[in-house]
Amino acid sequence: MSVQSSSKVQKIWLWGKNFFFHRFRPFLGLMCLSFLLSLACTPAASNRSAPPNPPHVATNPTLAAVPINRPAIVFPRDAGIIDVTQFGAIPDDGQDDTAAIQAAISAHPTKNHIFYFPNGTYDISDMLTLAGSQKRNIFQGQSQQGTILRLMDSVPSTYTKAILNFGPAPAQRFRNAIRDMTINVGRNHPQSIGVQFNASNQGTAQNVTILSEDRKGNIGLDMSYTDEIGPLLVKAITVNGFDYGIKTRWPTASQTFENITLLNQNVCGWWNTNSQKVFARQVRSQNTVPAIINDGEAGFVLLDSTLTGSGAAASEPAISNQKSMYIDRTQTTGYKLAVKSNVNWGRGNGNVPSGNISHYLANGFGENRKGGPVTLFPSANQMLGLPIKETPEMPWEQDLSKWDGPHKHLLGTSGLPDDDLDDTPSIQAAIDSGATTVYLPRGTWTINQPLELRKNVRRLMGTEAKVKMAKNAVIRVGPGQSPTVTIERLEKVETIEHTSQRTLVLNNLLGFHYVPKASKPGDVFINDCVGSSVIFKNQNVWARQLNLESNTQSQPNITAKVLNDNAQVWILGYKTEDEGTTIKTINGGKTELFGAAHVGSGVSNADNPRFITEDSSFSVAGIYGKGFSIVAKETRKGKTQTTDTFQNADAYIAYPQ
Question: Do 299 and 277 meet the contact criterion of CB atoms below 8 Å apart?
């Protein structure tokens, strides 16, 4: 792991000394001092030694993953991460690392552990599995191209398992994640699987390459091996080789994908089946086989994609669809058809010739599910087409001297996790210290007072930490040096108040409530977050995988899970649960939604329609789930129309032509 090494023991001594002289916790200081000195002075436990010249693993250059240049991911040693090399894993030595890595995992079940893999190739001989309740496990590489988990050549060709497995159903695999690494099944493993990924409510696979060196293998990214996978966000993934690049299956809660590259598959780039609902953008496929098969009553939304066929693809469709699908701004070349419609009994819209696909609905609102979208008033026949901005990527701070945390600012009883004592003063002191990155090490931090993000801070992150916030506690996004500020990797955040015009990025939050407090707050980007309700007002919002779970029907002071008050809101992947209106757009607001999935057994009454639009603009493609007496209510110039059914149409439009 990359850590600050100069005067390491001296710095650890000074920190421990601060603990020792903390008048309220003298004994704890001595314990921390002893523990931290042991970390600094004790080598990794292993009886293996790395050879002077680690073996080079040759790969076919034509199958090389797309090079991606991102800063290396580094953490301070006191962030609470689990470095697998401390358990005996030695990369680049050609020896089996499976037992050492599994020992690290098994010793740390659940509890938001980051399992950190410094750069190098780790040799794997058997499937790595999670421990305990198989939730809150984060596999973190130092870099996507530098950290490699590779199936050893000595593993028999009959191997049928994955390299990584993230646990079975039920939908309790909260916060699982895999980030910044390459999973390589090597050669001569035709039945192998790269990753069997599972996360629930909030979780992500991001910046990951899954590779078969000889193109052989069963599935690259397998999200079909068990039921109840999702909701989650899969982003910036490259799958190279395998029979199926991605396989998604089962209907529970939907899955959101963005920036997906599929190369050199043998049967199909992506197979979605058995009623799963997938919402995807920026899929790039280069194959001699179909890029996407959507069957088994499944649903699919596809945007801004490029599907390129060659060779045998000339006799195949780029997309084969059996049920529900919406496609827009997608280019196909080298295929016989862009879309082959296999909808049963002649229903739905027909085939699409090879070329560009625009505003395609598999199921319209007309007779036999043909035609265009649902409308309640004379409306346009296509989605709003709001401008889309990519999420700003905040550079990862490489200089660890610019990181700071509350544990370095002991103020009275403030500054240590897991003690139910208010840590607000210490967190604020870290924010005001001049650091660019403020981190909360793993544990639970108590916030009983308002916090303000200001000065030099551009990232507030948990190293997968929890916060416990009092009712009146908020995190305020105030003015600061950086035009963009990120809040990420935290659990149980309550209220975030946006009091400035700074751009705000919210990533990987399990529990949040967003409220704008400026007259015209800055832009907001939301990625892989679960919360209760949000308000957007006079601003621009882009959300990828938004999951809101709250019974707003029983809370008269909350009119909707998403209230858009004269904002411009674009969402890819929106999962909701419990009763209440899911989106209300008012005062000239514009809302464009790609992929809406609702789950739960309750039924919202007629006063709480699923979608409400009042003299504003709204459009949605990919509408799934039941539980509403009224599915849409639209008001224009004093006149109101409602409907209790979309009749399985794949889009609903509520704005004038």
Answer: yes
In degrees and rounded to multiples of 5, residue 395 shows phi and psi of -55, 135
Per DSSP, helices labelled H in 449-503 are none
**Distance in angstroms (rounded) separating the CA atoms of residues 493 and 495:** 7
Find the Cα–Cα–Cα–Cα dihedral 282, 286, 289, 291, rounded to 10°: 0
- CB under 8 Å to 390, separation ≥6 — which residues? none
Q: Which two tokens stand for residue 387?
A: 């401008």
Separation of CA 127 from chain center: 23
**What is the three-class DSSP state of 298?**
coil
Backbone angles phi, psi at 488, to 5 degrees: -155, 160
Long-range contacts for 427-432 (Cβ within 8 Å, ≥24 apart)? 427/451, 428/452, 430/404, 430/405, 430/406, 431/455, 431/457, 431/460
How many angstroms separate the CA atoms of 363 and 562, rounded?
A: 27
User: What does the block give as tokens for 258?
Assistant: 């963005």
Looking at the whole model, is its pTM more than 0.85?
yes
Q: How many residues does the chain have?
A: 657
Element (H, E) at 299: strand 299-309
- The residue type found at 17 is K
pLDDT digits (tens, 9 = 90+) for 399-414: 999 999 999 999 999 9
Q: Would you give the DSSP letter of residue 54?
A: P
Our measurement of the distance from residue 376's CA atom to the centroid of its chain's CA atoms, rounded to an integer in Å, reads: 34
- 463 and 81 Cβ atoms separated by less than 8 Å: yes
Residue 164, phi-psi category: left (phi > 0), alpha (psi -120 to 50), beta (remainder): beta
pLDDT digits over 356-392, tens only? Answer: 999 999 999 988 889 999 999 999 999 999 999 999 9
Calculated CA dihedral for residues 193, 199, 200, 203, nearest 10 degrees: -140
List CB contacts of 62: < 8 A, sequence separation 6 or more: none
Residue 450 to residues 18, 256, 405, 419, 485, Cα–Cα distance (Å): 26, 33, 17, 19, 17
